[in-house]
Specification:
Layout (H helix, E strand, L loop, with lengths): L2 H38 L1 E9 L3 E11 L4 E7 L5 E8 L5 E6 L6 E6 L2 E7 H7 L1 E2 L7
Antiparallel strand pairs: 1-4, 1-6, 2-3, 2-5, 5-8, 6-7
Amino acid sequence: MNRTARTVVSALAVAGLALGLGACSEAAEKAADQVDKSVSETYEVTYEVSGKGVESIDYHAGDGTAMAPRVESEKKPTTPWTKTVKLKGIMPPAVMPISLTPADLTCKVIYQGKVIKEAKGEQAVAGGCVAVSPIVG
């Protein structure tokens, strides 16, 4: 290969690398924008709990962080119980009822009119209703 041909091939390789890095940079920038949006965007969910003998209901109330959300409690709530909260970013919506008679217990997380998580009976007591943030993805 002569010197001119090597120079042209090298120049094309450098140009291709620069274009590839530019595309990677744009993709990284878009991903960073999506993360920023996911962290700062807010959304509302409604928690519902029904059943007899509900002693307390713990739920993510919206403050704190995704990894350490603030949990509020309602003691001896009247059922059916509902609560609408505003959560932020990737914070998971969660409601955890405690019942002495879990057979008829049901918990739900509702986002934009659709149930995104539901649990009944022992499952509702054991793990409650914890959903993935609906704005992720």
